[in-house]
Amino acid sequence: MKYFLSSLFLAVVSMTITSCDSDRDDNPILNTDKMTTEFKLNKPAYADQLIDLATSNSVNLTWSQPNYGMTLATIYSFQLSLSENFSDAIFDGEGNETTPANYVDLSGSFNTVSGSLSASAINRAILGFAGWEEESQVPASMPVYLRCKATLADTNVPAVYSNVVKINVVPSFKATSSYEEFIYAIGDDSGWATVHPLRSASEDGVFTGIYTGFAYLNAEFKFRSHEDSWDAPDWGAAADAGKLEAQAGNIVVPAPGFYQMVVDMENMTYALTPASIGIIGSFNGWGGDEFMEYNPETGALEATVSLAAGDEIKFRMNSDWAVNWGGDLNNLEQDGANIIIDADGSYKIQLFLTYAGNTKATITKL
């Protein structure tokens, strides 16, 4: 059973920002007398349950916002320790580290008071601390400790930290991923009615959480975890460009067109790359691309090309071989074999480009 847990970060802040002039509205001073110097990382409802890091997707938290007495951009991140008492690294007089810190910074940052930590990132952090040499050393369960770090953006004011919250986990000896095979893009290109699957890459049979898919995108869309429902989590645009946030607003498409979508769930980022798909082969001396047009009625990229018997062709993206497809027309693959044409003629070629393992083409003689 997957845990889609809700994450709350709390950070403690005691700091002073001064200005060169007076405390005007356009030149505010952070007054520590008006500021709450502690903020709370909320204890989640699941804290006393066991979270299986090999099968869970994310650990979600929430926290209170530090009260600076004014609106200030705050960046939140998380640290993990195997001890309830977080201790910093110790250095000698020459700056050499004599004792390492007993905590680690987890990847990802947040601009709001809620967010999701990757279960696989937590597991990797535990492995880095524990130093287990074989699977028999791994405990059936163990506590780990989290605290939230709050930093004021674009200042050199020292960070402040929340209280510590304990969660109970089932660690895995292998740094396995808990990501699902698919996530889905959905937007106003179809009136929010049709999903576009993105498939995760895998290593040694484990999904990496780096998803890739192709689709025509119109104006706005979001990513969601379920093919046929809006059950949480879904992901939209965070405040920072290229960043995702759970249950956030729609992502705005730069311009209507056919795109390659890449999502990195561990780092909560996304990239949209305009994808010009071309046909290249011996018919043009492997020296150019016959570009294809997207047909919204068929959902295919299409082109009409004159070919001769024995001609060989492939498909590629943006006139570059970094992303290309060949092989079996019913299951085209990256770097697949050249496609051989049987007879002379004019051909209508349709490419149905979605995600790895579901890319197909038809070549019809006119």
Sequence-ordered SSE layout with sheet pairings:
Elements: E1 50-52, E2 58-62, E3 74-81, E4 90-91, E5 97-99, E6 103-105, E7 114-118, H1 119-130, E8 142-152, E9 160-170, E10 182-187, E11 195-203, E12 206-217, E13 220-224, E14 234-237, E15 244-246, E16 251-252, E17 257-264, E18 269-274, E19 277-281, E20 290-291, E21 293-295, E22 300-307, E23 312-317, E24 320-326, E25 333-334, E26 339-340, E27 345-352, E28 360-365
Overview features:
366 residues; 9-stranded antiparallel β-sheet; mainly beta; elongated
Structure described in brief:
With about 375 residues, this protein is mostly beta strands. Helices cover about 5% and strands about 40% of the residues.
Which spans of ≥5 residues are poorly predicted at pLDDT below 50? 1-27
Oligomer: single chain
Give me the secondary-structure category: mainly beta
State the order of secondary-structure elements, H for helix, E for strand: EEEEEEEHEEEEEEEEEEEEEEEEEEEEE
N- to C-terminal distance: 52 Å
What proportion of the residues form beta strands (DSSP E)?
35-45%
What's the story with the biggest beta sheet? 9 strands, antiparallel
Number of helices, where a helix is a run of at least 4 consecutive DSSP H or I residues = 1
Q: What is the averaged pLDDT score?
A: 85
How much helical structure, as a percent, in the residues?
under 10%
Shape: elongated
Q: Quick one: how many beta strands?
A: 28
Overall radius of gyration: 26 Å
